[in-house]
Amino acid sequence: MVALTATIYNFDIDLADSDRGVYETLALRVAQHPSESPDYLVTRVLAYCLEYADGMAFSKGLSDPDDPTIAVRDLTGAIRLWMDIGTPDAARLHKASKAAARVVVYTHKDPAQWLRQIAGERVHRAEALEIYSVDREIVAGLVNKLARRMAFGLSIVDRHVFVATDDGDTIEGNVTRHAFNSR
């Protein structure tokens, strides 16, 4: 049996985040593991842009499952930002909250169902968790245009995202914050 290998995507993104005053040109080389859905991949790239900061890096993926999906570390190697994508379980959120000053989750799935599922679970500093859902229109629109090499402009104003694709289309939608209800 032959092992499947990752697919490499190259994203050239002009980022204009007026909410945070971040204006950057990003050249991202992102590996998609065979078990990773296109929706997850697109959400991972969007989350990277929405939280972009100096020193931000993707994890090594499935080869290092205990690491955050995306992280910002300080000069000592300590994790300042732990970011996960999708619907991590409460135990992972608990671990993340103990390991990092800031924990953020971006989901492309139904946040209400996931939050009900983990409600009441023990999570360290649960009140500080930042949980966001990305509008399905944004994710679906980018998945439909997904190519091994992509270029687009990404503008963020009041957590409203505008994606200007290189073929002249605009995809837009909101990024919504959700509360985590712990015990």
How are the elements arranged and paired?
Elements: E1 7-17, E2 22-32, H1 38-50, E3 56-58, E4 70-73, E5 79-85, H2 90-99, E6 102-107, H3 111-118, E7 130-134, H4 136-145, E8 149-157, E9 160-165, E10 170-178
Parallel strand pairs: 1-8, 5-6, 6-7
Antiparallel strand pairs: 1-2, 3-4, 4-5, 7-10, 8-9, 9-10
Structural features, described:
The protein is an alpha/beta fold and 183 residues long. It has a single domain (7-178), classed as Restriction endonuclease-like alpha-beta roll domain (Restriction endonuclease-like alpha-beta roll fold, Roll). The protein contains 4 helices and 10 strands; from the N terminus they run E-E-H-E-E-E-H-E-H-E-H-E-E-E. Helix 2 links the parallel strand 5 and strand 6 (102-107).
